[in-house]
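A favour, since you know our structure tokens better than I do. What I am after is a single protein written out in full by you. Could you add the entry underneath, on a fresh line?


***
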Amino acid sequence: MKMNKKIIFPILAVVIIILAAALIARLRAPGGYSGPTESITLGAQISEVAIPLFVAQDQGFFEQNGLAVTVKAYDTGLKALNGMLNGEVDVVATVSEYVMVGKILDNQPVKTIGILDKIDFVSIVARKDRGIERASELRGKRVGVLLGTNIEFFLGRFLELHRINAKDVTSVDIGTYPHSVDAVVSGKVDAVLCVPPYDKVAQSQLGNNAVVFPAQSGQLAYTLIVCGSEWLKLHSNVAERFLKAMNQAERYMIQHPQESRAIAKRKLNLTDDDITKIWLQNEYSLTLDQSLITAMEEEARWMIKNKLTREKTIPDFTNYIYVDGLNAIKPEAVNIIR
């Protein structure tokens, strides 16, 4: 049976229009990248601050944006950033603003392309049997701290707010976050600054002998995505696609909270109670806002005051923030005053 050409041609035209519209929608949709795949190596601290990365991996958002991402794990954001500067990785996605400030004051070529997370979860776990039940009783004690990270800054600020001279406390470098538990439980230190999940472990092992103080005093810490300045010049398109993937991960976490929590629970081997606490302590939102500059300036001032840098003046931190990438995909999230 032959179909009339007058019928066939309109049908074909409709099919072509539908296919073309679908292709255009795919290319315009988030993650609808159709060019060649780019391989990048990503440095990350495998902890709760990296949950958006886990979601992006699990849901294939990197692949949708033409990225083949290999993750290299580090104990701390400081080690990850040092790895990037040594050529081990291309991008670091879980580094604190304090660490970045230190590198800027050391004239290292670094730039952040986005804030991944804002946190308020650093605590001080102390031993009651060492005469510590109030913050003021840290005077004269040995306190474990991870030197070179924002933990160092939060201890200094905590002491200042409680009118304790930093010279009246002995800071002991614990080396890595996991070592914080052994340091305080074994009695090597009288108190220690902890991040999750190690704070909970230390409290559990100390039992009734533990006393806990919130260490950040209301000041948020920032988890940044950081690139080398030269790498960014050559790979600005790759950086933008990475940000697209992270923006997709953020939307997924909002639209699918239970599934996102399940991904985090599985990746970090956590309990339901842990996950509930994490969602309260972290603000997972891809942004670049002025509060970051304010925090960096305060930390730079503190470093200069405590002679942790040879620099004497606070630099213009806007020169170390790349806004074009996030402006292209989420302009409402950019609020940097230049």
